[in-house]
Amino acid sequence: MTTTADTAASVAGPGDPPTVSGKDAGRIARAAFVGTALEWYDYFLFGTAAALVFNRLYFTTLDPTAATLAALATFGVGFAARPIGAILFGYIGDRVGRKPALLITIVMIGLATGTIGLLPDFGSIGLAAPVMLAVLRLVQGLAVGGEWGGAMTLAVEHAPIQKRGRFAALVQVGSPVGTLMSAGAFALVLLLPSEEFDAWGWRLPFLAAFPLLIIAVIIRLKVEESPIFKELVKLEERAKIPAVDVFKLAWGRLLVAIAAAFLGVGGFYMMTTFVISYGTGTLNLDRGLMVNATLVAAVVQIGVVLLMGRIAERFGPGRVTVWGGVATAVGAFPIFWLINTGNAAAVIFAVTLGIALISTAYAVSGALLTELFPPHLRYSGVALGYNIAGALSGFLPFLALWLLGITGGAFWPAAVILAGVALITAVGGHYGARLRVQDKAIVE
Question: For 156-169, what is the mean pLDDT?
Fold first, then answer.
């Protein structure tokens, strides 16, 4: 898995000492977390709406199953755009600066999300409605393609080496907080009568993106540029086309990054977007129950992420990734069996357990990925690894739903998909741990 070029890349080392204090590092990480939470709120809204709204209001000429498949395919389009966003914003982040890239991403996703709330449905403008929905999802995907890698890189590059696990985990908390915000917003509007929810209620969470965008921009403007990037500028060590160098010089590390990040992205959407669709569409469970299950899981996820960030500082993010991958693979079938019972308590417990297991690996993926790439390729390498995994993951809910139809509603295909993704991540964590040890030896 390690190439000569990979080893050469590691000499540049991810162990560059930052020039800020631990207090300043915490402040930067918290700022990155807040901006990331707002951005994930925007992005997660689409997943929930795809399962609850878009299948009925934007694909109304299709039968219910086909409409849901079309809505989830549109959801997956955003993931397909994410590697392109990783290349684009990786270039900006590694050439111009981490901060400018993060300002652009937050503006793009905020405007795209708010515009979805203003978009007429199929009954008003016909085929143009789902087409415009797909375009706005593409814009979201491009922006998120640069967001996570940039926020993680900025936080880690400000952090003392021995505390990178906790600060990287703090950025990861932005995901469950974004889930809480988006699921909470939908839980509130679901209290409306069905007619009002379909007419205008579902739009309110999307329209909230406009004022949240103002908050996010203010926060991002106050974030300081990475001291490591400033040093790269001073030494004139920036790559001309970072993404090309990642594929050419560090392709082995990129494969490890993709594998290590796969569960955190793909598993999460299997346990949220697919499970919501499966619960409401196949098991005929209450929509409120499914959304509330994700709320409970998100609260637990915050604690798991923060705990695993600390544990990774002692045992290494690669080893923790292996634990998370193996545990999720073992738990996949029991989790979906519990959901399939249709019992409300069992469903909430299963979704919470699934998210907690997935979060073991997800919590440390930022720390692991940033250690795989040298500073001059870090933004691009981290963004590409995470978002290629995202592109592969985005269509998993679609695939699981399609297999559901073929097997007559059996839950085992979804469990197989989750277990397979988990084992791939376990392998990525294993190789990531080996590469990290090599880097440590070279640096010392």
Answer: 84
C-alpha 74/C-alpha 394 separation (Å) is 10
| pLDDT at residue 436, rounded to an integer | 67
User: What pLDDT, on a 0 to 100 scale, did the predictor assign at position 116?
Assistant: 92
Task: State how far the alpha carbon of 343 is from the alpha carbons of 137, 337, 355, 357, 385, in Å.
Answer: 34, 11, 18, 21, 38
CA distance 17 to 1: 27
In one letter, which amino acid is 44?
Answer: F
pLDDT confidence bin for 302, thresholds 50/70/90: very high
Confidence of residue 22 (pLDDT cuts 50, 70, 90): low
Say how far apart CA 215 and CA 235 lie, in whole Å: 35
Query: Mapping DSSP to helix (H, G, I), strand (E, B) and coil, where does residue 60 land?
Result: coil
How far apart are alpha carbons 339 and 330 in whole angstroms? 16
Which helix H or strand E contains 434, and what residues bound it? Answer: helix 412-443
Q: Distance between CA atoms of 168 and 256, rounded to whole angstroms?
A: 18
pTM above 0.70, yes or no: yes
Contact 354, 61 (CB under 8 A): no
Read off the tokens for 407. 């097997």
Asked if 327 and 219 count as a contact pair (C-beta separation under 8 A), the reply is no
Q: What is the mean pLDDT of residues 37-48?
A: 78
* 416: CB partners within 8 A, 6+ apart: 332
Contact 363, 308 (CB under 8 A): yes
CA–CA distances in Å: residue 419 to residues 267, 327, 414: 9, 9, 9
On the question of pLDDT at 15 being above 60, the answer is no
CATH number for the segment(s) 18-443: 1.20.1250.20
DSSP code of residue 284? -
pLDDT tens, residue by residue, 316-341? 999 999 999 999 999 999 999 999 99
Give the residue ranges of DSSP H helices in 373-411: 378-393, 396-406
Listed in sequence order, the DSSP H helices in 282-411 are 287-315, 317-340, 344-372, 378-393, 396-406
* Nearest residue to 178 (alpha-carbon basis) of 207, 201, 209: 209
The structural domains of the chain, with segments of one domain joined by +, span 18-443
What separation in angstroms does the CA of 319 have from each of 263, 368, 389, 433? 15, 10, 19, 6
- 391 half-sphere exposure, CB direction, 13 A CA radius: 16
Rounded to an integer, what distance in angstroms lies between the CA atom of residue 358 and that of residue 335? 12
Nearest Cα to Cα of residue 283 among 296, 297, 293: 293
Higher-confidence position of 322 and 2:
322
